[in-house]
């Protein structure tokens, strides 16, 4: 199988490019398996931003937590500002 290079194109997004690479290189699984595993793990962590900001959101929500004037709120790393 010949090596193919996918060049950046403004019309093609990253996910399409990854899909194209996977389809073109399915026969070379011994090299692509670790990369595919990494990319799948990366996709699964997209929710990480939500959980990373959850403590700050809860600390600043007056209906959920005490107001910042009366109490300090622990955000998992430090006392919230």
UniProtKB/TrEMBL annotation:
Membrane topology: Lipid-anchor; GPI-anchor
Subcellular location: Cell membrane
Superkingdom: Eukaryota
Pfam families reported for this sequence: Glypican
One GO location term (cellular component): side of membrane
Alphabetically ordered keywords of this record: Cell membrane, Glycoprotein, GPI-anchor, Heparan sulfate, Lipoprotein, Membrane, Proteoglycan, Signal
GO biological process: regulation of signal transduction
Family note: Belongs to the glypican family.
Entry protein name: Uncharacterized protein
């Amino acid at each position: 199988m010949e090596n193919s290079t996918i060049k950046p194109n403004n019309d093609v997004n990253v996910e399409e490019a990854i899909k194209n690479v996977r389809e073109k290189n399915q026969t070379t699984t011994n090299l692509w398996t670790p990369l595919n595993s990494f990319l799948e793990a990366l996709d699964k962590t997209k929710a990480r931003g939500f959980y990373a900001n959850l403590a700050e959101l809860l600390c600043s929500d007056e209906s959920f937590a005490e107001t910042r004037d009366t109490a300090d709120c622990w955000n998992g790393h430090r006392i919230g500002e």
